[in-house]
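Q: Succinate/fumarate mitochondrial transporter, please. Structure only.
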Amino acid sequence: MSSTKEQNKKKNPLMHLVAGGCAGLVESSCCHPLDTIKTRMQLRRQATSVEKVVVKMRDSLMEPALRLKHSLQEPAGRFAAAEPGMARMSTTTTAGGRVTQVVRTGGPSTAGTTVAPLGPVGTAKRIIQREGFLALYKGLTAVYTGIVPKMAIRFVSFEQYKEILHTGKERAGLDGKISPTLITFTAGLMSGLTEAIMVVTPAEVCKIRMQSQHHSMMDPVQKQHRKYTNVVQTAMVITREEGIGALYKGVVPTMLRQGCNQAVNFTGYNLIKKKVMDYQGTTELASWQSLLIGGFSGGMGPTVNNPLDVVKTRMQKQVITPGKPAKYTGLGQACALIAKEEGVLALWKGITPRLLRIVPGQAITFMTYEFVSANLIKFGVF
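A: Structure for Succinate/fumarate mitochondrial transporter:
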């Protein structure tokens, strides 16, 4: 992440482990609830539209009988006897003709129920009301388990790939023909692919399985009987029931997502960082500057690649039963199926909490990394 090759050579790979690990721990502790909200939003299926319900009720052969039944009842008690969970129908007449309205009386959600979509705040409130505040931290052990090696691999591999690319450029006599920005982009891309294969995919499979459980964190009985309890137990259950390959569900979209994110992230951060330092005539950034630049660069990738994240989440959540075909089988098939069943915008489900999660997360990561690494060098630890 240094701005010059001389600075890169000063950095011991162990420093990336320490600085990156500290950055990851601080970032995940602060931002994990937003990741839980994002996951729940992405796993939520689209409810049946009002228009489909109205057409279905209008074309039903039972409609005349239903209208006759309602007309024989008193207005005050017309819907009082409706069973929980059943839809009640009312008819109003306007100048343009009759309009049928379908209203749900309560009870559990069904296929024909019209449900108002919940945003990030509504999703968070529902999780807290139903499962307790600590439910926002479901899957955090999986994040902690993978965050130190992930950050270490990210920063070490980025520096190593960048050094290899610089050396290769010099040996090939291509100095001046390949821009440093292209090298930074390529190193970031390869860094993202590396961390996705080595750490991110299995850790996220475990995390998503734990986050997707709708048990209450306030009820000891529900907590005791939950299927997934911690990251090690979750990995063992998944391996036993579905095979070790299940830990790598969604590896392709995860690789594409991480590669895209880190390519854009490192490129944006280093470009802006260099411009700011040149403008100031300094060799280091203040912590608040690293925070702002890291947040800005961190928001670029997710805006573009959110469909990859939705597909990854769906593929990692599904449990494959022997003898039954999986609903989502690949990146292209999953994108097409989600768009067909739920609309194209469903591929951008969770984008708001994802940006709320990633932007401050990357800001904290870069600020912490720069602060810790600068102090490790300052005090002669590395």
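A: Brief note, in case it's useful. Confidence is low (pLDDT under 50) at residues 2-9, 47-116.
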